[in-house]
Amino acid sequence: MGVTDFFDPDGIAVIGASKTPGKLGNDAMTNIRSYDGDVYPVNPSSSGSVYGYEFVESVADTDADLALCCVPSPVVPDVLEECGEAGVGAAVIFAGGFAEVDEDGQELEADVVRIGEEYDMTVLGPNTAGYCIPHLDLYGSFVPQIREVETGNVALVAQSGGVGITSSFQFDREEYGVSAMFGLGNRANTGFAELIPVLDDDPQTDAIALHIEGTEDIDAFFEVCRNAETPIVAYKAGSEDLSEFVQSHTGAPIQDRATYEETLAGEGVVFVDSVTELLDASRAIADTPTPAGEHVGVVTAQAGPGIIIADELNERGAVFPDLDDDTQARVDDLLQGITYTENPVDTGRPLPEFGQVIDAVARDDNVDIVIVYEIYEDSLGYPVEELETLSEEVDKPILFTVAGPDSFEEERLEMEAFGIPTFQAPERGAHAVAALIDSISDDA
Amino acid sequence: MGVTDFFDPDGIAVIGASKTPGKLGNDAMTNIRSYDGDVYPVNPSSSGSVYGYEFVESVADTDADLALCCVPSPVVPDVLEECGEAGVGAAVIFAGGFAEVDEDGQELEADVVRIGEEYDMTVLGPNTAGYCIPHLDLYGSFVPQIREVETGNVALVAQSGGVGITSSFQFDREEYGVSAMFGLGNRANTGFAELIPVLDDDPQTDAIALHIEGTEDIDAFFEVCRNAETPIVAYKAGSEDLSEFVQSHTGAPIQDRATYEETLAGEGVVFVDSVTELLDASRAIADTPTPAGEHVGVVTAQAGPGIIIADELNERGAVFPDLDDDTQARVDDLLQGITYTENPVDTGRPLPEFGQVIDAVARDDNVDIVIVYEIYEDSLGYPVEELETLSEEVDKPILFTVAGPDSFEEERLEMEAFGIPTFQAPERGAHAVAALIDSISDDA
Q1: How far apart are CA A417 and CA A152, in angstroms?
Q2: Strand (E) positions, A307-353?
Q3: What is the distance in angstroms between the Cα of B280 and the nearest Cα belonging to chain A?
Q4: Contact residues for B8 (Cβ-Cβ < 8 A; gap 6+)
Q5: A305 at the B interface (CB within 8 A)?
Q6: Contacting A residues, span 202-231, partner chain B, CB-CB under 8 Å
Q7: pLDDT tens digit string along A276-334?
């Protein structure tokens, strides 16, 4: 029993399963089909089968230890009671209409908490879009096409299921995936404090990305963040001015961003300012080694975007060290008579030597992190070979900001494949580097 | 003669044209082929033809009034002199190695300025990637595939050609285009003050996007911005700390962002903080009516992302008015028993009634701007019909933040086609709304 039942359920019951397309109980069935164990559509008023699975009258007739509850809030307590009686270890409650709406809802949610406790049952939600673990073919959600989201090495834990879903799809659209995504919703008995330790132990997860609105037991939250060995990137949404709207959503307590940032400062938890930054920072941290320091080498094929990157990094506390004499000599030799060979190195336009320039800067002991910017030209391509060698021989983060016509996509994905994170706008690359610098914890 | 020669040249000379792929003089030829007038590859040491155009010995042998100079800096003055003698009205100088590098370069650039003046010749650059005007099939640049950039209604004027190019490609990747793109480089005699008035008069241009590093005649810059009737969005890059790198690039004077923002405050010029925001804000302002005020109606199908949007807008001075009684009654009727029907309106999940909810909020007199958020579900799709009607009947900005699997792309482009700007991340939609609010000038 417990959170791990979300990872390796021995049979899944879909309570309130439906044959009718567009109904929540049908959407949940479409997503769960990829699960290779037993699936039990539970619905006393349905007969026959849905997607090849025979309907059963009650969860009592199943061997499921995970239940996806697709029923409206008023009947949730009874359904959950039956789950407990049937030996279900974990349940997902999609329905809204609980603590986030009114006092009746708060009573309903209290029942959910009590029943979860009584049967030692882990409850995700209520008021959540669910969860998914692509590498286990588990898509416990009613959101159509969530099963298109592929496997990656970042785990998303979102207080809002909607944010978890939209973030997963944004990862997917940019050709990445997730190791897991959990939408917490109202957090009856499963919140950050329960999930972070499990994801910290998950070999598929190299970074944990959090969307936070507010947490009741904030000390427990800080505790698990401090104890996690897996890097954590957090985006705190929901300002005090919006308290009414925020509370109406997940009943989250109102807490300001500063409380979180100040408490976890120097603990290796990185805070970011948007969903896009949350995804970019998580990918960069998951895919690259922890930098030894904040000394950044910038190599750009076009000075203007290089200035933008240096400017953003400068505002966020990065340092641009002088290259050591050997490096400088090598760069000057490669860039005869070119504008600006000191860090930031500006090659003026893409050149056949571009990869060697990156190589020289990346091997410089003064440099902890390398960020590259280049507008793609088909005749030259990106310096994929040099970067592959560097990713094997140099234990530093090397990030590549891509630009140009769509034709760079193939080489972008090649670079991603051997651990060079890529970013599609100058500020996105710069913010990812800033996140890497923030990820250096005091005790590192 | 003058800037307009960039728009309707009567014959184009490519000086230093080459048959060798990868050479700048060859790349420029590949791009200029789409021009339907006479093209003259000029190269005394080449014979025969390139891409079907016969080589000529000298610009004197041509009737060109636009010259693309693909020659290295030392010979630029002589080449420019010949252009002047040949009656060329406008020239683009791609080469670097002028005022941005050293004293010799400064002398070379002084020659360029002098010759331009002597022959009343408009010079773009030196040290620029050039320009393009897609709706006129004019691609005066050496950057391969710039000719893939299609026609849009935003004109980009970038102090850095590289930023102009990368911004144009970013527009193109998101299925937009540009009305024109000019990379200024060193601004021998063509800068913001010369181009903004011309673009202000350009019927193809509905908004002007500026990338600024620093301008010599800042008063002239402020003057043209104040006088322009076309909305202007500006991104000022290059902080004081980076002066050496910035100056080495375009020899731009060091000016801080505040100087620009304070001087143009209330003049209807919108300042943004990144390239992505520059593109998003320009599109939103180009495609929607100027809002009557800062009262924003938020309609979201998922509360979490709605909170993020409201949060971002709240920080940027937006106001979320109460809906008037009739609107509220209509919304409540549409959303029986749903979480949160007041502004921000949260429908809990996508519904068939979603479009009617947007309709109700958009027609509310208390609302000046509408921002919508919805994760796409194939079974429901986006409320395209309702939005098309609204775009015809309601004279307010309506923005739509899209999310979900790629399958929304078709309906996203439909909405774009009838003037509903779309954005692919919550913060991008919020920042676009903030830009619309900033675009309300004091005298509006």
Answers
A1: 11
A2: 345-346
A3: 13
A4: B136
A5: yes
A6: 211, 213
A7: 999 999 999 999 999 999 999 999 999 899 999 999 998 888 999 999 999 999 999 99
Which residues contact residue A338 at a Cβ distance below 8 angstroms, ignoring those fewer than 6 apart? A346, A347, A348
A contact residues 2-41, partner B, Cβ 8 Å cutoff = 21-22, 27
Block residue for tokens 């990156």: A358
Bridge partners of A403? Answer: A375
Q: Contact A384/A415 with Cβ under 8 angstroms?
A: yes
Neighbours of A79 (CB within 10 A): 24
Of B166, B242, B425, the CB nearest to A403: B166
The interface predicted TM-score of the complex, written ipTM, equals: 0.94
Residues of A in contact with B185 (CB under 8 A): none
| Sheet of B345-346, strands arranged across | B345-346, B296-300, B369-375, B398-403, B422-423
Average pLDDT, chain B: 93
- The model's pTM is 0.95
Please name the residues in contact with A87: beta carbons below 8 A apart, sequence gap of 6 or more.
A65
Q: How far is A186 from chain B (nearest CA, A)?
A: 12
The answer to whether residue A145 neighbours chain B at the CB level (below 8 Å) is yes
Q: How buried is residue A266: exposed, middle or buried, by Cβ count under 10 Å (0-12/13-18/19+)?
A: exposed
Residues in B closer than 8 angstroms to A307, CB to CB, are: 160, 213, 237-238, 242, 245-246, 249
Q: Which letter does DSSP use for residue B252 in this model?
A: P
* Chain B touched by A319 (CB under 8 Å): no
With beta carbons less than 8 A apart as the criterion, state whether B405 and A148 touch.
yes
Which residue from B236, B349, B280 is spatially nearest to A276, judged by alpha carbons? B280
**Three-state secondary-structure class, residue A294:** coil
Tokens of B260: 């620009």
Amino acid, res. A223:
E
Contacts of A308 in chain B (CB under 8 A): 163, 237, 274-275
Of A170, A305, A428, the CB nearest to B162: A305
The verdict on a CB contact (< 8 Å) between A239 and B348 is no
The reply to whether residue B144 touches residue A378, judged by beta carbons under 8 angstroms, is: yes
Is the CB of A404 less than 8 angstroms away from the CB of B275? no
| A249 interfacial to chain B (CB closer than 8 Å) | yes
Over residues B4-49, the pLDDT tens digits come to 889 999 999 999 999 999 899 999 999 999 999 999 999 999 999 9
How many residues does the structure list for chain A?
Answer: 444
Residue B350, helix vs strand vs coil: coil
Instruction: Give the A window 332-361 contacts with B, CB below 8 Å.
Output: 337, 339-340, 344, 346, 348
* Dihedral sign of CA atoms B332, A28, B412, B429 in order: positive
Contacts of B326 (CB under 8 A, 6+ apart): none
Angle between helices A76-85 and A103-118 (to 10 degrees): 0
Mean pLDDT along residues B47-75: 97
Give A164's contacts (C-beta < 8 A, 6+ positions apart).
A129, A131, A156, A157, A158, A181, A182, A183, A211, B304
Q: What pLDDT is attached to residue B444? A: 47
Residue A2's CB is within 10 A of a number of other CB atoms, namely 13
Q: How far is it, in rounded angstroms, from Cα A158 to Cα A125? A: 12
Q: Which of B272, B294, B299 is nearest to B283 (CA)?
A: B272
Instruction: List Cα–Cα distances, A232 to A7, A199, A279, A429, B389, in angstroms.
Output: 20, 11, 12, 19, 45
Q: Is the dihedral angle over the CA atoms B277, B280, B284, B287 positive or is it negative?
A: positive
Residues of A in contact with B97 (CB under 8 A): 337, 339
- For chain B, the first-to-last Cα distance in angstroms comes to 35
